[in-house]
Amino acid sequence: MPDILKSIEARDPAEKEFQQAVHEVIESVKPVLDRNPEYRHSAVLERITEPERVIMFRVPWMDDQGKTHVNRGYRIEMNSAIGPYKGGLRFHPSVNLSILKFLAFEQVFKNALTTLSMGGGKGGSDFDPKGKSDNEVMRFCQGFMAELFRHIGPNTDVPAGDIGVGAREIGFLFGMYKKLRNEFTGVLTGKSLGWGGSLIRPEATGYGAVYFASEMLATRDDSLEGKTCLVSGSGNVAQYTVEKIIDLGGKVVTLSDSSGYIFDESGIDRGKLDYVKRLKNLRRGRISEYIDKYSAAVYTEADSTLENNPLWDHAADCAFPSATQNEINGKDADNLIRNGVSLVCEGANMPCTPGAIDRFLDKKILYAPGKAANAGGVAVSGLEMAQNSMRLNWPREEVDERLQIIMRSIHQTCLDASAEYGDPGNYFIGANIAGFVKVVNAMLDQGLV
Ligand code: NDP
């Protein structure tokens, strides 16, 4: 194991997800370090794996019964070499320092790949919005922003949404920031359209992942037309992944949430997708309710005692993991390959374990790592920042066109870097190397800061 990993493990032994994310990048960039001795001399690995700043704070809030609760809030300001910190906020009971540091670390390279000027950050809380009333969510968001506002700003750090943080939460967070600072600025992205949001931002991560998948298929003279796809999750990324797959002639047969998954052999068409959007975004219901409406579909409850996730054990051509980290393990990867899947495109962040990735690369599956494939979300966040600065709103077609250009460019950048370093078509290596080189060169230009 490289020394840097040993020292990271020794320093923060409990941060397993962070170690996993660092390991993946460091393994990939070894040839870059060998070719550029000044990188090692300047200790770039030691510097890039240590956050520039970590903020942790108490968030007290009151529920509807008048009972006081305390959650923990975080913001990891990971790297600002190429722009202000940028990255989402996650509200989920599993949130801890390890998960947010892994997400912030990934974000640094992802943002570098977008071609826009954005550094990397991530934040959130172990607060669970599920089952809370709108008023409780509002009080929590206000308490969270009552501390966070000191650390963020349109030229400093610009948070956005992630798991558990959608348009409702961004609205409450923005309202409190505006009140505390007495200014209306583009300090958050993912805002609603009427007050500074960008068209296509809600769609961007899912659409972008599907655009990336189309680019990968095109390298083999293929397309999504007629392909059967497995999608996990049923939140923001999953919904718009399904929508774009349908647009491009594919068929999606699965969706999930943390309680279980549905399998709909006849395919989730536009009408069914509209139902899922209403179910998840308005009624905040469970995916199990899908079979009450569409009785031919089958619902399977999640079973944490199983070694594998049965969602990944259906005959299909493509898989779009779009729920959470480490949701495809080695066994799931074996099942996907056995069932005929030839493309895996990560909508979620780090959904495949290292064992799963090894199998995909070994079998020459078209495998897109999240830091490339799901970069469309943050890219359109960058476009939202640009529109806010100009006080302009670009039309839907213009933003979508820019998103497609950016996804094509990320795809090409990954291919070029993989070829330059002797492993053409390996998007995993390509994404890590291209993101790393851009950030490290900027760090070196700016001196020891
Ligand atoms: P949402 O909160 O909108 O949806 C998350 C979905 O994943 C829900 O269906 C949720 O189910 C499910 N889920 C969450 N945790 C688990 C778990 N431990 N096991 C099984 N299912 C789970 O989040 P997003 O769609 O925004 O995010 C999904 C993924 O995409 C995350 O990895 C995120 O970091 C990544 N991502 C998101 C971007 C964005 O723009 N939103 C940008 C780039 C990456 P339940 O409702 O039961 O919790």
Protein model, in words:
The structure is a single chain. The protein starts with a helix and ends with a helix. Helix 8 packs across helix 9 and helix 16 packs across helix 17. The chain is globular and about 60 Å long. It has 17 helices and 13 strands. The model has no long low-confidence stretch (mean pLDDT 97). Among the domains are: 133 residues, Rossmann fold, CATH 3.40.50; 170 residues, NAD(P)-binding Rossmann-like Domain (Rossmann fold). With 449 residues, it is α/β, with parallel strands linked by helices. Helix 12 links the parallel strand 11 and strand 12. The strands form 3 sheets. The protein has a 5-stranded mixed sheet with strand order 1-2-4-3-5, sandwiched between helices. It has a 5-stranded parallel sheet with strand order 7-6-11-12-13, with helices on both faces. It binds NADPH dihydro-nicotinamide-adenine-dinucleotide phosphate. The site of NADPH dihydro-nicotinamide-adenine-dinucleotide phosphate has 24 residues, from helix 9 and strand 8. One of its GO terms (biological process) is glutamate biosynthetic process. GO terms for molecular function: glutamate dehydrogenase (NADP+) activity; nucleotide binding. Pfam families: ELFV_dehydrog, ELFV_dehydrog_N.
How does the SSE layout of this entry go?
Elements (H helix, E strand, L loop, with lengths): L2 H9 L4 H20 L1 H5 L2 H5 L4 E10 L5 E12 L5 E7 L5 H17 L6 E6 L8 H15 L8 E4 L6 H15 L19 H18 L9 E4 L4 H12 L3 E2 L1 E4 L2 E4 L6 H13 L7 H4 L4 E4 L16 E3 L9 H9 L4 E3 L8 H9 L3 E3 L1 H4 L2 H15 L5 H25 L6 H19 L4
Parallel strand pairs: 3-4, 3-5, 6-7, 6-11, 11-12, 12-13
Antiparallel strand pairs: 1-2, 2-4, 8-9, 9-10
Helix pairs in contact: 2-5, 2-17, 5-17, 6-7, 8-9, 8-15, 8-16, 9-10, 12-13, 15-16, 16-17
